Amino acid sequence: MKSSGMGERHNEGVVPDPGDNSDSYVQVPSPLLSVSSIQTESMGRDAVMECAGVTSPVPAEGGQDPLFMEGQRRLRENAEFSEPSSTEDWVRQAMVAMKMAPCDVCDVVEKSYPDHDSIEFWRSIEESSDFRTRCHKKFYKRMVLRFREVFPDEPALRNTRTMNFLKMLLHIEGTDDTVEVLFDKYIRVLKFFGPVKLQGNRCVLLQQLQLMIDKSLKYNSNAKKEKISWFAGDMSRQEAENRLSPEPRGTYLIRMSQNNADRGDFALSVKQNDVLYHIEIKGQPLKALTQEPFSSCLVFQDKEYSSLVEIVEELKYGPVTVTDEEAETEIWCERICPGLPLNGVISGYKRTKART
Fold first, then answer.
1. Which of 88, 309, 314, 335 suits 65 as a labelling partner, its CA being 20 to 30 A distant?
2. Are strands 251-256 and 231-234 parallel, antiparallel or unpaired?
């Protein structure tokens, strides 16, 4: 992933005086700072640029890059901007500019999910000291602290299973303080489950995850004492088929679509006799943003549902009809596929080896 757009699009701000062989340098007009010329002493151009972490590629043909110009505008509007009076000021303001500059990758991700509350929540999380990744990486621990500040009455924050579920969806491994969340993974989860915004006294995203924890667990038909979840999380079509193939007819699971993750699609994978079916559950994340109270607006079999839980509840009362080669097939979802990867997280039950 690219670093901050400003950090990669600077013009030269300090160049050596060609008529001078000394260590004195002359500052020429820089689009980042001011148009005044200042004598800088004790540090040359390379040292300044290295300290600031700035590279100097050739400007875009026909003028400055739009991201560069946006960064310049933000810098001049910022209260920290002033006429530089020393090399230290030059470096400080260059750092401020890079912090404020939009990352082109993050800009694309933001536009794919235009929810103001969710984006502002991300930006409000305390940043790391690395300006090159601060826009699209945050420490998970700081994210959780921010959740607690913004949603102090949210019960899901006190539920270990829900928070572990969130970590799995964000593809986070480890528990130390340096574990990071990527911006694109954050937005991806929102497309599937809903925004980070207040509804009543609850966070929509965490409320939806809590619903999955509470309602997706059902008794396994083979072991009545054990509850398992039908939700498989991120799973490819091939892995779903591998898991369902040895199981009896009517065995099913629901997974996050990998081909249509940008749309927030899920898929119902089910075995009928010796045939494996993958039936689309269409997401509408942008429409869901407009719903009060929140609804995921999932479309399954030409009907709209508020959540995956609602879809699965309806599967108990009737078959799913699939049209294949001009013939209609009725499929009953009767049995949850055992051994799915998120069962331990959702149930809170983890198998451990017996002590010897």
1. 88
2. parallel
Radius of gyration of the chain (CA): 27
Q: Helices (DSSP H) in 53-152: which residue ranges?
A: 66-77, 87-100, 104-112, 116-124, 140-150
Question: CA torsion sign, 122 to 125 to 131 to 134?
Answer: negative
**Measured between alpha carbons, how far is residue 198 from residues 164, 191, 206, 290, 294 in Å?**
21, 16, 10, 13, 10
Strands (DSSP E) found in the chain: 14-16, 25-27, 39-40, 137-139, 180-182, 198-199, 202-203, 217-220, 223-229, 231-234, 251-256, 266-272, 275-281, 298-300, 303-305, 320-324, 327-331, 335-336
Per-residue pLDDT tens for 187-235?
A: 999 999 999 999 999 999 999 999 999 999 988 766 667 889 999 999 9
Give residue for tokens 């080669």: 325
From the list 218, 197, 194, the residue with the least C-alpha distance to 208 is 194
Q: Does residue 277 contact residue 241 with C-beta atoms inside 8 Å? A: no
What lies within 8 Å, CB to CB, of 222 at 6+ separation is 338
